[in-house]
Amino acid sequence: MISLIAAECAIFTIFVVAYIFYIGKSLSGPIPKDVLETPIFNTICLLSSSLTIHLAVRALRSARVNAFGLWWFVTMVLGTIFLVGTGREWWHLIFDKGLTIRTNLFGTTYYSLVGLHAFHVTVGLIFIVLAMIFTLLGKVEPAHSERAEVFSMYWHFVDAVWVVVFTVVYVIGR
Amino acid sequence: MASETIAITAATEIGRPISEGLHDWIVTVDHKKLGILYIVYALVFLVVGGVEAIIMRIQLIVPHNHFVSPQVFNRMMTMHGTTMIFFVAMPILFGFGTYLIPLMIGTRDMAFPRLNAFSFWMTAFGGLLLYFSFIGGNGLYGAGNAPDVGWWAYAPLTSRAFSVGHSTDFWTLALLVSGIGSIGTAVNFIATILCMRCPGMTLGKMPLLAWLNLVMGGMVILAVSPLTAAQVMLSIDRYLGGHFFDTQAGGSAVLWMHFFWIFGHPEVYVLIIPAFAFLSEIVPVFSRKPIFGYPVMVAATVCIGFVSLSVWAHHMFTVGMNSYANSFFTITTMAVGVPTGIKIFNWLGTMWGGKVQFRTPMLFCIAFLFQFLIAGLTGIMLGASPFNWQLSGSYFVVAHFHYVIVGGILFALFGAFYYWFPKMSGRMYNEVLGKWHFWLFLIGFHMTFDFMHIPGILGMPRRIYTYEPGRGWEIWNLIVTIGVVFQAAGVLVFVVNLLWSLFKGEPAGNDPWDAWTLEWSTTSPPPDYNFAAIPVVHSRRPLWDLKHPEDPDSKYE
Fold this sequence. Notes:
The complex is a heterodimer.
Chain A: H1 2-21, H2 32-35, H3 40-61, H4 65-96, H5 105-136, H6 145-172
Helix pairs in contact in A: 1-5, 1-6, 3-4, 3-6, 4-5, 5-6
Chain B: H1 18-27, H2 31-59, H3 70-104, H4 113-136, H5 167-195, H6 208-239, H7 253-287, H8 294-307, H9 323-351, H10 360-383, H11 385-391, H12 395-425, H13 431-457, H14 474-504, H15 542-547
């Protein structure tokens, strides 16, 4: 998993470099300052989901399956809120502000970087939902805590990347 | 140790329908079968890529030749480069790694057998996708078929305006798909080597082949991922109307070059490090001496791994970077020569004072040492940015990197083939045919690539489909093309030797070379489970300890 995360880091690095390289290089509007709003609530949700998944894994390791299910569910909800939030943000940008991936360089780099991250969140959520279904069916046992832990590494990684994306897109980029 | 095998009931395969055997190969997750699949798959593409090279050389044999059209020449050039790097060199080296690593570190399979199979099939379908472009590349526009943008695919050649149809998309997707396979294999290598070693095998007692593949795995992860990211961006540009590499909307063509070479240069080391690994196993065995300077070899490899990640822009000296960037990349390029030089001296030190046996694998390795040295020296020449301004984009560069890839990697690969063929097939190859292959290929190689430097110095640019008479290039191009005939003959002898030995060769026995690493302790070919009992090792040469209990290596390490 660490190797995979290293590979993912390299991929994100390239997209982040492209984003930074193209800041302010757009030949036409809209520019980030006019259209982007800082998604504080979203960020809080995603980052706190790191804590909840950690609590879930710890619960499973000490054989508290119900607590695991609860924290896992909270993680799922927080991740979904983030994804819905990103969707609303994109909806707003596309239909109210007229920014699409074709509009200018900002659109191209913004949608690919944030989209790449959202794609990773989606993949993570699919796994979380699968594990949730197994939990509800009563198939999850403390013996599975190692798998849950390996997955939680991925989830922590996705959160950590969001910190980078957030900094680059919403702080430096504006 | 584990040389005895577990008796398997109904092991005879006679009378099984052929479809069942085929089914076994397709659904296999066994590292040995997958390794052989990788190798056979790559050999097929080696022939295909070789034919493309022959077509180009026939076109260039005389000035104003009309053997193929300029469009076809561009396609051949692109397909030759892409095929040879992504669908010959990478899979064949992964194949040897997949086959040998579990055997050498004394385990029964890779850490993730199913990921292993997945990676192979991703690579395989990537290759099919690339070659499907010959049929499917026409697209709706009816223009172009195979990709013709060069293997580096510089922007804006790849933009919709200049590359209509789907040929470039096939190229992008093929690399994306096979890149995912490569990352999977690299993850698997690292996990296997770090977690699955047999008892007693500390990192310091691991065979060098495993060490070098570990470094290679790390480099694949750091180098192939940027390529994957860049291909995603290119697809966004081509299909969703993005502007990453669209200069008219403020995008940057140079950014693509950076992204491509951040992959492209470490890639060369991804390919050469497994070749180093073969040398580090073959040279000691045929010199009858343990490897000279084991810790230094490991340190030099890790050093190459790090430094080579920061040399990429020496492909771009002529693009117009500022002088600080030029100096930085000149210095790093020179620096990477130091650990590489250390390795060459270590192999020489291994041979020095040894009882050198000139068998076919050893001959290829010795040729490697000479040729790789020359390739490194022309590399240092080209790494000096002022010299590079004169010769960049000329046939001198083509000669240089073919010296690395053919003279270095391919020679080491042929050596590895002959060395491990008895283990993989259970039969010895024919030594006479092996020597014929070596000498034919050596003569052909030097005719082609030694003389290719000269038209480069005389100003012949690369990638051209024909040239004017009277510039002093004719004789050199003629010699270069004649050399190809010898190389092709050598490869033919090699194929004949492989097929003949596979069916008619003498049985090899477990350990035909009196070697020292664990793969020779089991039967040839190894059983599905590799080792009946997982071996325990005490030194870097476990089989030496076993054969010479009175004087084991473990006393001295």
